[in-house]
Amino acid sequence: MDAETLPYALDLVAGSGVCLSPEKRAALRTSLLLVRRDYRFEQVRLWGRLQGIRGAYYIAEGLGPDRVGARSRLYSLNCVDWSLLPPPTEEMVAMTAALKGRFQGDPSYEYEPPEKKEDAERPYEEETGSMLKEEIRLVATVHQIDKAVGIVPRGAYVKSPLGPVHENRNFEGN
């Protein structure tokens, strides 16, 4: 959902039971517009919300002039303060593949790597693995969800002769 039309889009989604408090809605719209200005994005979209045990992660996506180019993702715990997520790597996805269960809602929470649990029978050996932060798991999860279900309708984007890809103005609805 684009930051410009966020209040209208949230009204449309509210019929399915997904809704935010008026305070969260106001904070979200205002803060996303500030994120667009501060990070110099051309467009900011609300990617979604991942619910944890102690809190929720609100994920936003910033787009530059090239719509198919790299996307910057940010997360917030309170819909006001936003932090950039590092770009996903295959190593991050591989490290978090064995983790199961719900998110805690705290980006500094550390998970014990699965191979470390297997080595628990050998208590006198030196620790070789490091703890895995929930922020890395968040990056990998958002990347996997986007990769699995992200689609673009044919004709929605047009490549300009100068190189960047833009939204097709003829594709817009009324």
From TrEMBL:
Cytoplasm as UniProt keyword: yes
Biased composition (Basic and acidic residues): 113-125
Region span, Disordered: 104-127
Top-level taxon of origin: Eukaryota
Compartment list: Cell projection, Kinocilium; Cytoplasm, Cytoskeleton, Flagellum axoneme
Keywords per UniProt: Cell projection, Cilium, Cilium biogenesis/degradation, Cytoplasm, Cytoskeleton, Flagellum
Family annotation (InterPro entries): RSP9 (IPR055316)
Main location: other
Similarity field: Belongs to the flagellar radial spoke RSP9 family.
Name used for this protein in its record: Radial spoke head protein 9 homolog
Species of provenance: Phrynosoma platyrhinos
